[in-house]
């Protein structure tokens, strides 16, 4: 049987899928995930942030596949379950192309599959800030210019929307947000033009579909070589906003970037449940968001549902999940899978650099195709984000493509020991870090010496630990 | 262990094992043994749910456990209610809270966690869900005579609706009848102060602590 | 004070306008409209279809502005009232441009002000309300057949069909978005087949997201095309309409605004409805930014009470023509009129309604005939064709230059022929596209060609001279 088309998927999501209460769907995920974790004997091992166990990765894959086949996906607007036959799922996975072309002109890049412990260089799609607190206009342009001027990057992530548009307070779902989506993209085009890289790829992550769609324009907006970010919501959930983004990406012909964050402590249960549910989420991305159609890439993240910083991607159980999830997808699918890192610490701090290293340990040597969305801290002050941590993201990403998993494991452990104890409730996760204007001289758009010293210091430390840049 | 202690332990265990049927059985046994229903709730059921809440905080149990534990507690309370005076029933309620995620925001996970933790700590919680309109918060608060209105947001662009909530309460002249607290991913203490709410919780545990303080005042 | 820019308007709509229950706003409309009708001594005359009283038209205009200043526009999504100062309204009206360019390449047309009694022909935007058409080929053929008529200067496309990719379309779902984009691409295919690839068209999806998704400078709604943005009766807008406006300004395409009041609704009787029609129009000017190019509107459609919202009989005709004249006398920009008929395609009654509407509008100084071209209210599948559009366009040219008193007599004669046939459901359903046209050759069937000629002759007998 052929994989269902997007229109058939939409028919199930909007018209024909069985209606179910959200709570029942959530509880079903929990019970099936708990059962499968037992059946496959998957156990969280805090001592091994980066696993070298191939069979564990395959077990996680099989459990995830079984979970998705049993549970299906859920559309929050229609309260309908979108279910698929095993043969449809298998066919959908088979149709993946294992390649995505991004950017245009001299900035054209090909995202290619990487194996576990693959020596080939990863793709670096940066971004790296939750810049919702950035001021409009010039500073926003400078932020992205500071990122785009880093030669190692192949593209970057932009989003979510700022808090003001034309000086007025932006609320979700209002036309000011629609306008802002378009404004942000035109500032990004200005930033890459200033960086001398007008064809550089970016992905736009407005929360509402209408803002993303309004940003699309083959000349002056989001081009077909750029991408729209859609999300699989925890767990196995979608809504009309995200489906609208997918429909439009198909109609317009731009790249799809799917973000999927498995939640530890949520409906999936503990780290083991979150691991297999996130794999089910990735399969949902392939089947529901049609990753085999056109060019697409995926970002698999793990976050914790409980304190202290619930959005952290780089706590110990998250790294464990990420390392296995990376390998499970790399060994069993042609999904282009990239890494994200929502850090506890903010920009310009040693701790954020250490967190970035840990996140990359669990992804690049584990077969991820690259990095995306950059590193960022959740609770923000205005102007929090810079090109510097993105430079680090790129450099470490390339360096880590040359290492084996056991080295990555010891390096990750080393890093965790340095920062783990600093993730506290009192500090809201970790140090807040520094703002763009603190880290950079905004006239020359170069990092200030003090921060370059921190950067070089951490790099030196890594070299001492055996990492070659 | 006395008979009473044994029953209280069973109540607590039933919640801790998320077993609504066992909780109902234990509640019936408690009624037969003529244990004070208030005691059965406070020293049996609620105690068990607090253990679940603590384990969730420690990363040992998960959101579904919180939900199932709270359901077991509620099932048992239904049995006990028939044998309690209204004032006794009220005395087991630490405070009444209307909680929801504000307009335009469909993030429900944090909301469910905070709602469950509040339940675990003896609050009567009315969860009005995601994408909740300002007027729905207020209508529900009036209907259930709430002590606290709690609003959550996970997007900077939905945070302004928290401000609307405060303004709407002021416009209606009932701002002093409710304590208002806010929380959620991007929400900061500064924001809470700026919009003039009474409490801010940066996570579920803090939300419980703040709610307890607010009902004391 | 200068007219507020759109971002300031949005700020009032979203953040700062006073929150008011909709019922209070509606009752205030009724109250104020009733007061102003008395103060300005506006009286409906059921014998008059095309009024000829300039001072009455100006009274209506002034009362409408006064009402708008009192009330403002209501945003249904935020429940906030968007209010304006008198100086802001005056300033915005001053800044309105007197022409707009539509279409591109050899299909570029300039819509200019004609004014009452003008001898310049109007611009004709054809179309149908085709919500029940099948997807794809038949839809393309419908628009191709309309576009093939050289007198057609543009097309109105919308609202959405019932299916997309064969699946039921529900409002607000991603299938509706996809359909919006598909319809625009079918419209492009239709005009390409007609040999007029630059022909202007207006996309009229109910949701902003579908209209926005339809925009694309290459294969979708281009900058020379338009988005249809409505004032909801009375004096209301929402985030859909405001979202379309925000996007149209960002993208730079044409805003085709639409508005009009309902007799027997919040405005009260025919007199109140004409006043509120003007207020609805001013709301469009201020909120949808008529002072910024490119924009054209069709406003002042004052619809009869009852289940069928038509304006081809009185009091709808009187109201629509009076507001049309008020706008023509006091507003600098293009002044369009939307056509609604009670009868369906291929019927004598619909041809007569079209004729009456054309003659009346031309005399009242309308510059542009737009929207739905011709519409029948209760639709069955495939109801709509190029034939009534052709009649519409030819009559538009034939009746150019007609004076108001002559028009009134002519319209009275024509209306008398169909007035009694207006029923609760409108009138006769008419015939479907495939009944009227041979879809292979895309030409009308003999029976309907004969009907067309018969109706044209009837109009000639009434004294109209056809140029085409």
What does this structure look like?
- The complex is a heterotrimer of chains A (469), B (217) and C (468).
- Chain A has one domain: TIM Barrel (Alpha-Beta Barrel).
- In chain A, 43% of the residues lie in helices and 16% in strands.
- Chain A contains 15 helices and 17 strands.
- In chain A, the strands form five sheets. Chain A has an eight-stranded parallel barrel, surrounded by seven helices. In chain A, strands 2-1-11 form a three-stranded mixed beta sheet. Chain A has a two-stranded antiparallel ribbon with strand order 3-4.
- In chain A, a hairpin with a 2-residue loop joins strand 7 and strand 8.
- In chain A, helix 6 packs across helix 7.
- Chain A is globular and about 60 Å long.
- The model of chain A has no long low-confidence stretch (mean pLDDT 92).
- With 217 residues, chain B is of the alpha/beta class.
- Helices cover 59% and strands 12% of the residues of chain B.
- A five-stranded parallel beta sheet of chain B has the order 2-1-3-4-5, sandwiched between helices.
- In chain B, helix 2 packs parallel to helix 4, helix 3 runs antiparallel to helix 4 and helix 6 packs across helix 10.
- Chain C is α/β, with parallel strands linked by helices and 468 residues long.
- Chain C has one domain: Monomethylamine methyltransferase MtmB (TIM Barrel, Alpha-Beta Barrel).
- Chain C contains 15 helices and 18 strands.
- In chain C, the strands form five sheets. An eight-stranded parallel β-barrel of chain C has the order 6-7-10-11-13-14-15-16, surrounded by five helices. A four-stranded mixed beta sheet of chain C has the order 1-3-2-12. In chain C, strands 4-5 form a two-stranded antiparallel ribbon.
- In chain C, strand 2 and strand 3 form a beta hairpin.
- The longest helix of chain C has 20 residues.
- In chain C, 61% of the residues are buried.
- Classes of the chains: A alpha/beta (469), B alpha/beta (217), C alpha/beta (468).
- Chains in contact: A-B, A-C.
- Chains A and C meet through helix 1, strand 8, helix 6, helix 7 and helix 8 of A and helix 1, strand 9, helix 6, helix 7 and helix 8 of C.
């Amino acid at each position: 049987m052929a994989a269902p088309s997007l229109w058939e998927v939409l028919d199930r999501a909007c018209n024909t899928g069985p209606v179910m209460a959200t709570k029942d769907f959530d509880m079903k995920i929990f019970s099936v995930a708990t059962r499968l974790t037992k059946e496959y004997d998957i156990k969280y091992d805090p001592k091994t942030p980066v696993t070298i166990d191939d069979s564990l990765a395959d077990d996680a894959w099989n459990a995830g596949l079984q979970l998705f086949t049993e549970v299906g996906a859920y559309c929050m607007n229609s309260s309908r379950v979108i279910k698929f036959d095993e043969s449809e799922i298998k066919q959908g996975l088979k149709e993946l192309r294992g390649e995505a072309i991004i950017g245009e002109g001299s900035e054209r890049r090909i995202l290619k599959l990487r194996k576990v412990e693959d020596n080939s260089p990863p793709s670096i799609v940066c971004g790296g800030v939750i810049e919702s607190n950035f001021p409009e206009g010039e500073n926003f342009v400078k932020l992205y210019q500071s990122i785009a001027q880093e030669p190692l990057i192949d593209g970057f992530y932009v989003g979510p929307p700022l808090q003001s548009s034309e000086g007025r307070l932006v609320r979700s779902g209002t036309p000011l947000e629609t306008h802002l989506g378009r404004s942000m993209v035109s500032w990004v085009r200005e930033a890459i033009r200033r960086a001398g890289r007008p064809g550089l790829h970016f992905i736009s992550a407005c929360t509402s579909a209408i803002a993303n769609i309004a940003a699309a324009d083959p000349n002056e907006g989001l081009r077909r070589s750029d991408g729209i970010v859609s999300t699989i919501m925890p767990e196995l959930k979608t809504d009309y906003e995200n489906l609208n983004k997918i429909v439009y990406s198909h109609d317009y012909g731009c790249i799809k970037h799917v973000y999927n964050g498995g939640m530890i402590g949520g409906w999936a249960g503990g780290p083991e449940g979150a691991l297999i549910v996130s794999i089910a989420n990735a399969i949902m991305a392939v089947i529901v968001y049609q990753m085999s159609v056109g060019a697409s890439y995926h970002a698999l993240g793990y976050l914790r549902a409980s304190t202290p910083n619930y959005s952290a991607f780089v706590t110990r159980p998250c790294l464990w999940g990420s390392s296995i999830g990376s390998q499970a997808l790399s060994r069993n699918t042609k999904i282009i899978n990239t890494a994200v890192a929502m850090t506890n610490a903010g920009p310009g701090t040693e701790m954020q650099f250490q967190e970035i290293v840990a996140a990359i340990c669990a992804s690049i040597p584990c077969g991820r195709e690259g990095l995306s969305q950059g590193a960022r801290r959740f609770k923000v002050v205005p102007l929090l984000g810079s090109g510097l941590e993105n430079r680090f993201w790129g450099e470490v990403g390339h360096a880590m493509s040359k290492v084996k998993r056991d080295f990555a494991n010891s390096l990750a452990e080393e890093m965790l020991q340095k920062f783990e104890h600093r993730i506290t409730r009192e500090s809201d996760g970790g140090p807040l870090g520094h703002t763009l204007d603190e880290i950079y001289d905004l006239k020359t758009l170069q990092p200030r010496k003090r921060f370059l010293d921190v950067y070089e210091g951490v790099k030196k430390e890594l070299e001492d630990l055996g990492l070659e840049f | 262990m006395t008979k009473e202690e044994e029953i209280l332990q069973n109540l607590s265990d039933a919640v801790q094992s998320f077993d609504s049927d066992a909780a109902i059985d234990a509640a019936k046994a408690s009624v037969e043994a003529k244990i004070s229903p208030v005691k059965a709730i406070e020293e049996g059921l609620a105690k068990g749910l607090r253990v679940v809440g603590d384990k969730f905080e420690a990363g040992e149990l998960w959101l579904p456990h919180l939900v199932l534990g709270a359901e077991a507690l509620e099932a048992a309370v239904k049995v006990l209610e028939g044998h309690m005076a209204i004032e006794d029933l009220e005395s087991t309620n630490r405070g009444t809270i209307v909680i929801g995620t504000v307009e335009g925001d469909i993030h429900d996970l944090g909301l469910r966690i905070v709602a469950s933790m509040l339940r675990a700590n003896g609050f009567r919680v009315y969860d009005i869900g995601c994408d909740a309109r300002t007027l729905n918060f207020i209508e529900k608060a009036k209907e259930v005579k709430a002590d606290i209105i709690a609003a959550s947001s996970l997007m900077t662009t939905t945070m302004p609706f928290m401000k609307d909530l405060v303004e709407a309460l002021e416009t209606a002249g009932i701002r002093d009848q409710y304590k208002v607290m806010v929380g959620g991913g991007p929400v900061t203490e500064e924001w809470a102060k700026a919009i003039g709410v009474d409490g801010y919780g940066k996570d579920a545990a803090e939300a419980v602590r703040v709610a307890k303080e607010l009902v004391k005042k | 004070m200068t007219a507020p820019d759109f971002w300031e308007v949005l700020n009032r709509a979203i953040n700062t306008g006073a929150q008011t229950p909709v019922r209070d706003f509606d009752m205030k409309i009724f109250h104020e409209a009733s007061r102003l009708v008395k103060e300005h001594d506006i009286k409906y005359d059921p014998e008059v279809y095309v009024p000829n009283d300039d001072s009455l038209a100006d009274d209506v205009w002034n009362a409408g502005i006064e009402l708008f200043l009192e009330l403002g526009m209501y945003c249904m999504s935020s429940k906030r009232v968007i209010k304006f100062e008198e100086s802001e309204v005056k300033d915005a009206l001053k800044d309105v441009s007197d022409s707009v360019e539509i279409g591109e390449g050899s299909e570029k047309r300039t819509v200019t002000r004609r004014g009452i009694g003008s001898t310049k022909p109007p611009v004709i935007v054809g179309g149908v309300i085709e919500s029940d058409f099948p997807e794809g080929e038949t839809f393309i053929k419908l628009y191709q057949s309309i576009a093939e008529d050289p007198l057609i200067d543009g097309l109105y496309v919308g609202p959405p069909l019932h299916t997309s990719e064969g699946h039921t379309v529900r409002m607000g779902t991603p299938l509706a978005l996809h359909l919006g984009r598909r319809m625009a691409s079918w419209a492009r295919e239709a005009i390409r087949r007609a040999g007029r690839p630059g022909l202007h068209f207006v996309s009229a999806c109910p949701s902003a997201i579908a209209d926005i998704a339809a925009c694309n400078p290459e294969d979708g709604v281009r900058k020379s095309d338009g988005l249809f943005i409505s004032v909801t009766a009375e004096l209301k807008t929402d985030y859909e309409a405001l979202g379309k406006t925000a996007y149209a300004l960002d993208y730079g395409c044409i805003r085709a605004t639409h508005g009009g009041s309902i007799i027997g609704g919040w405005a009260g009787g025919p007199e109140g409805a004409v006043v509120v029609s003007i207020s609805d129009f001013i709301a469009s000017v201020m909120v949808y930014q008529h002072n910024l190019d490119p924009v054209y509107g069709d406003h002042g459609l004052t619809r009869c009470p009852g289940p069928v919202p038509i304006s081809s009989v009185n009091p709808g005709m009187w109201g629509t023509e009076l507001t049309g004249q008020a706008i023509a006398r006091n507003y600098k920009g293009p002044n369009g009129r939307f056509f609604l008929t009670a009868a369906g395609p291929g019927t004598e009654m619909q041809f007569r309604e079209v004729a009456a509407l054309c003659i009346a509008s031309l005399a009242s100084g309308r510059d542009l005939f737009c929207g739905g071209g011709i519409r029948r209210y209760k639709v069955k599948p495939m109801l709509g064709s190029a034939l009534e559009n052709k009649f519409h366009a030819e009559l538009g040219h034939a009746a150019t230059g007609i004076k108001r008193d002559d028009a009134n007599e002519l319209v009275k004669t024509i209306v008398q022929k169909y007035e009694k046939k207006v029923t609760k459901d409108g009138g006769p359903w008419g015939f479907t596209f495939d009944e009227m046209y041979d879809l292979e050759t895309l030409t009308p069937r003999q029976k309907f060609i004969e009907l067309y000629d018969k109706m044209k002759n009837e109009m000639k007998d009434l004294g109209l001279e056809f140029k085409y």
